[in-house]
Amino acid sequence: MDKQHMAGIDGDQWAQCVREKGWLWDAASGKASATLILAHGAGAPMDSDWMNDMTARLVAQGVNVLRFEFPYMAQRRVDGSKRPPNPMPRLLECWREVYDQVRRHVTGTLAIGGKSMGGRVASMLADELGADALVCLGYPFYAVGKPEKPRVEHLAALKTRTLIVQGERDALGNREAVEGYALSPSIEVFWLVAGDHDLKPLKASGFSHEQHLALAAKRVADVVRAVS
């Protein structure tokens, strides 16, 4: 199949699917080079300021972005009650369901990924799903304060082309700790100077949050274009 992106055979069917599922679809500015399914992190929804900002940047770089919510977050939208993430099996099931639906409608390069937890769950399925690329924005390599208990076993054997954009001082995966882990050669870790879990740098670094977000979006777009 030609990798050139098309939003399904019937655009109306795709639009209806997005509406029925409660997803957010942002089409690329101009000709699309790829589509990225972008999942939210544990504590903020798919339309948080951070997710909205990153989506806008990716769209401007020629990448279509589809956002969805895990069941616990979708329920919060209904009743306003905060709750912890679903058990991992349910999160994985949700990702599989979303990918299957999107793949039916969207041809061409299809990458998966997300912010923090959303990216981690995607990383556990990337090879299984046959995704063209994996993008993790602020990967939670370990729980806060526990670098000696990393969540990286599956990353050693990952085959999918992977980009992890990580702040050097991320409390869930700082540079010193992460560089000591055994990661698959298919994984590129793109470090942002003095960045935190939201990629925000210290003022003393000489970089701004705006600059780091722009660098992150450009690198993501470059990677997904490279597999097109």
UniProtKB/TrEMBL annotation:
Highest taxon, organism lineage: Bacteria
A Pfam short name: Abhydrolase_11
InterPro entries assigned: AB_hydrolase_fold, KANL3/Tex30_Abhydrolase, NSL3/Tex30
Residues passing through the membrane, by range: none
SUPFAM superfamilies: alpha/beta-Hydrolases
GO molecular function: hydrolase activity
KANL3/Tex30 alpha/beta hydrolase-like domain mapped to chain residues: 33-224
Keywords: Hydrolase
Protein known as: Alpha/beta hydrolase
